[in-house]
Amino acid sequence: MKVMAINASPRTQGESRSELLLKHLVNGMEKAKAEVDVVNLREYEVKFCQGCFSCWTKTPGTCIFKDDMSRILFPQWQEADIVVYSSPLYYRGLASKLQAFVERTLPSLKPDLISDGDRTHHPARIKSPDFVVLSVAGFPDLKEFDLLSDWSKTNFNGDNSNLLAEIYRPASQVLTQKHFKSAAEVIFKAVRQAGGEIITKRRVSDETMAKITQPLHDKDVIIKTSNLYWQSCIDQDVIPKQFDKKQCPPTPKTVEDMMLLLPMGINKKNAGKTDAIVQFSFGSGTHEDFYLDISNGKVNALKGTSEKPDLTIITPFKLWRDIMTGVSDGTQKFMEGAYTIEGDGDLLIKLFS
Predict the structure, then answer these.
(1) pTM for this one?
(2) Which end of the chain is more exposed for a tag (fewer CB within 10 A), N or C?
(3) Residue 127's domain spans which residues?
(4) For residues 25 and 194, what is the distance between their CA atoms, to the nearest angstrom?
(5) Which of 221, 248, 217 is nearest to 233 (CA)?
């Protein structure tokens, strides 16, 4: 079985999360013995359809443009058994270059109008491949894909083709965050499973789809962390790609922000083997103290003072914020006496290294 997997993301160097999921989908398809050709659409010239209809009248079935679409991609599209359209969600639709690609497949249709009762459409000139649509979004709500889903069902389900699967992943930014590494692996595994099911069963099971779309965190937490992330990019005058290279969390503005972000920076491997209370004391009335309750592999941040902390970190709020975000070196500041600790000093290294 031949599969043409079209990656419409303009991003390169591992930035694209739609491309990341597509790689896992392709992996599952190949394990099911499919012959898959991945096309990075950004590398090809695909001119916009001009609506001249030459492909319907003067040169039936052939576009007047002699670009990569006509010479390479459209012939490959015609030969494929399945075409995967993979795109980030832009304004609740496809990336523009993929939209241009889809429009340039117009030569596969005839100009006649036919009706099946509820819908009028153009008959096929050739047998179309079947389709899979894959998309990701930063928004946490699955319903953000509703418009794309309606469009896909309308265009790819018919007498001449079938829409085999729609794979949508909201809050996709969490897939590349260290804090969600283990949860992301569950999703990646499910996407690989989906690839195999598409080839062997021509559909994705409800169980597999539920794993792909499962929420990885509370919606409010995702919104707050996302807002902090973008504000940090704005404050530092950088684009996301530059900010991500630093591998530091967003900058907390308040104690509540720090309570939200700090558990995500804990060394998860070591935390899973630790039961401890870590108290943060800011030494002034300006910022309320809080503590981390670490038990059973989970880290919860709670306001106030713990009666029996295993480790107390006595620090100005701004200093610990700078240590969190990589502005200051934690070891150096400790040696300088900028902050002090009481209790189990090994926990400091164990949890925050």
Answers:
(1) 0.90
(2) C
(3) 2-213
(4) 7
(5) 248
